[in-house]
Automatic annotation (TrEMBL):
Keywords attached to this entry: Kinase, Transferase
Classification via SUPFAM superfamilies: Glycerate kinase I
Keyword Transmembrane helix: no
MF GO annotations: glycerate kinase activity
Gene coding for it: glxK
NCBIfam families: glycerate kinase
Source organism: Actinomadura rubrobrunea
The name this protein goes by in its record: Glycerate kinase
InterPro entries: Glyc_kinase_flavodox-like_fold, Glycerate_kinase, Glycerate_kinase_RE-like, Glycerate_kinase_sf
Amino acid sequence: MVSPDTPSDLSPPGHVLIAPDRFPGSLTAPEVARHLAAGLRRVRPDVPLVELPVADGGDGTAEAAVASGWRRVEVKVCGPTGLPVTACLALNDGTAVVELAEASGERRLPGGRPQPLTATSLGTGQLVAHAVRLGARRIVLAVGGGACADGGAGLVQGLGGRLLDALGKDLPPGGAALRSLHAIDLRGMPDLSNVEVILTGGPAGPLLGRDGAASVAGRRAGAGREEIRALDAGLRRWADLAEAAARTAVRDRPGAGAAGGVGFAALAFLGARVEDGTALMLDLLGFADRARGARLVVTGEGSLDARTLRGRSTVGVARAAARARVPAVAVADRRGLTGEQLRRARIQAVYALADIEPDADRRVRQAGPLLEQLTVAIADEWLPRRRPRRS
């Protein structure tokens, strides 16, 4: 445990707000929150608890919204390889959270086998279309954890657009096929002029080039050098025709390369704007209201390291807690931040699974019980028992 600051000897009144992100590979954000709550209830049964799983606008965002009370809507859509999958979106008072990973994510790949040249974002477009049919007027498009590098061409197809080759036939799915793109027909797409689309999911570069979608998403999906060249050539052709059709130039804008280029299509065809995912989600989930009157916020994620400082949810939660004048501590599988870095991030202390279980595989298998074990130290150091009054 790293603790830059020392808690007070007396525990003030108020609740504990449990607001963690997921532990990738072991627990979802709601599962992390449940285990932390179970542990704290055992050691401090008199302390009120409020569970508010959070997300940074990427993978797990829809699930976090549902856990906070949003309506869960399940839709059968096309997965990244063309097989049908049942995906969910979250809906609340005219706002929908549409998560790319739900429809077109790595976890939807059969057997986990990547298909970088042919994987499609079609299902994500179908989810967006369904949200619009349900009356959503604001769509948060969370684009972490994607399995495709198709520049969002599938997104456009899922919304009713057609991508045609020189013979007028529909292109097959995937980024490589875009090399044969000849025309884009947008007549089947719905009117989205009154729909606000917000793109979230962490920083991303341009659509093309060394830091573009083909290089980043393709390499992550296991594409070799020649496959990356094929993808980049397809995305370049797609960018030329898509920008002409949408009458805009967005290929070099921040966020265009997000999720294999899905960000590009959202910017070009949906008029999306890019926002910090953590700040947006904390606002949508009502974090400020739930932190009011709290004595402690417990947040965390799988790994606290340099990436955490670049916009991950743990830092966003800690800084929001500081604005509410509530101390925040974090749990993690492991940590790689110094005490000074933690202070700057407004994290008062870190409790890591690696401190009590050195075996990494066991930490994945037993993450839930180990988190419950960590709550003993959290309670001892931040939730001291109330001193009995003297008569």
